[in-house]
Design a protein that fits this description.
The chain is an alpha/beta fold and 361 residues long. The chain has 2 domains: 151 residues, translation initiation factor eif-2b, domain 1 (Four Helix Bundle (Hemerythrin (Met), subunit A), Up-down Bundle), CATH 1.20.120; 201 residues, Translation initiation factor eif-2b, domain 2 (Rossmann fold, 3-Layer(aba) Sandwich), CATH 3.40.50.10470. It is 36% helix and 17% strand. It is built from 10 helices and 17 strands. Helix 7 links the parallel strand 6 and strand 7. Helix 2 packs antiparallel against helix 3. About 3% of the residues have low confidence.
């Protein structure tokens, strides 16, 4: 059974403790996550020790954000496989391949999950020696993915901060901050870096229906960091742009394909259209691990359809007629022509976009 740690209120939260959405437990036998379903009311960390716990945490958004679920999946493959360390090499690898497929399929849209899991599996298959040797190599590879993500987030922040005016009013959607990655975040990394340089940065965070990742998570982590943030309803973005309250938009990404089309939290496409109409720069911040060169355009991206209850209910109260059909697509596709630039760990990429070379681009 997973270890559920004591809830900690905001007032009790140790400061200045950095947020670590996903990491190893001290003994490296479990994946330790911040249970984001509990925020902002309670800060709870969970230790995931089995395949079922890893998949449940990813599926229910206890851990979320493309980079973070990739890291969780990579580490989760290690702790799942460790239960079979007593088996012969061939049987151990067979179980590891099965677990890798199960974890990678838990959420279909974000490319980081199958990418990270595949990296650890490939390392396992290439490692000679005993099962213990293979497990150690897998653990080292999963740790490398975490450390690389931390470094990539910082580079994204440094590149993106150069795009912010001296007094920047940033609009963002969903949560692409520290809670969604192994480091500072993607879309919020430029905000954190600019603020650390003493510049004036304020953020408009859309509430992000139906699971309120903006109001629950982005507002919480920015407030905790001392960065001014205002939560607005998703439908208020247009009027705030028209009023001149937005200098630029920065969002994250779950998958970017060869032509530059972007899959991100549903509602991103609407913001990109609005930004285009109002002449506001629309930036997508991402690590290069989010690029999927195997797909030519966004039309080929599988869009996750989630439980209708996320839309039809608020808390435990149903707010939609039982006879009504509910559609709950978790993501939408923003065409490349609406993206002003991509902010990556390798710098700012401007049009025309060509990601056919993938992560090596």
């Amino acid at each position: 059974m997973s270890d559920v740690r004591r809830p900690i209120s905001d007032a009790e939260m140790p400061e200045p403790r950095p947020l670590e959405a996903v990491r190893w437990s001290p003994d490296q036998r479990a994946v330790r996550i911040i249970d984001q379903r509990k925020l902002p009311n309670d800060f709870v960390e969970r230790d995931l020790t089995t395949l079922a716990e890893v998949r449940e945490a990813i599926h229910t958004l206890a851990v979320r954000g493309a980079p973070a679920i990739g890291i969780c999946g990579a580490m989760g493959l290690v702790v799942s496989a460790a239960h079979h360390a007593h088996e012969p090499r061939a049987a151990f690898l067979a179980h590891t391949r099965e677990f890798a497929g199960d974890i990678a399929a838990t959420r279909p849209t974000a490319v980081n999950l199958p990418w990270a899991v595949g990296r650890v599996l490939s390392h396992a298959e290439r490692t000679a020696g005993s099962v213990d040797d293979i497990l150690e190599a897998m653990r080292e590879e999963a740790t490398a993915i975490l450390e690389e993500d931390r470094a990539m987030c910082l580079r994204i922040g440094e590149a993106g901060a150069e795009l912010l005016p001296e007094r920047a009013r940033v609009l963002t959607h969903c949560n692409a901050g520290a809670l969604a990655t192994g480091g500072l975040g993607t879309a919020l990394a430029p905000v954190y870096v600019a603020a650390s340089q003493g510049r004036s940065v304020t953020v408009l965070a859309t509430e992000t229906r139906p699971l309120l990742q903006g109001s629950r998570l982005t507002a919480w982590e920015l407030s905790r960091a001392g960065i001014p943030v205002t939560v607005i309803t998703d439908s208020a973005a247009a009027s705030r742009m028209r009023a001149g309250d937005v200098d630029l938009c920065i969002v994250g990404a779950d998958r970017v394909v060869a032509n530059g089309d972007v899959a991100n939290k549903v509602g991103t496409y609407s913001l990109a259209v609005l930004a285009k109409h109002h002449g506001i720069p629309f930036y997508v911040a991402m690590p290069t691990s989010t690029i999927d060169p195997t797909l030519a355009s966004g039309d080929q991206i599988a869009i996750e359809e989630r439980d209708p209850a996320e839309v039809s209910s608020l808390g435990n109260r149903r707010v939609t007629a039982e006879t009504a059909t509910v559609s709950n697509a978790a993501f939408d596709i923003t065409p490349a022509e609406l993206v002003t630039a991509f902010v990556t760990d390798r710098g700012v990429v401007r049009p025309p976009y060509d990601f056919r070379a993938g992560r090596s681009a």
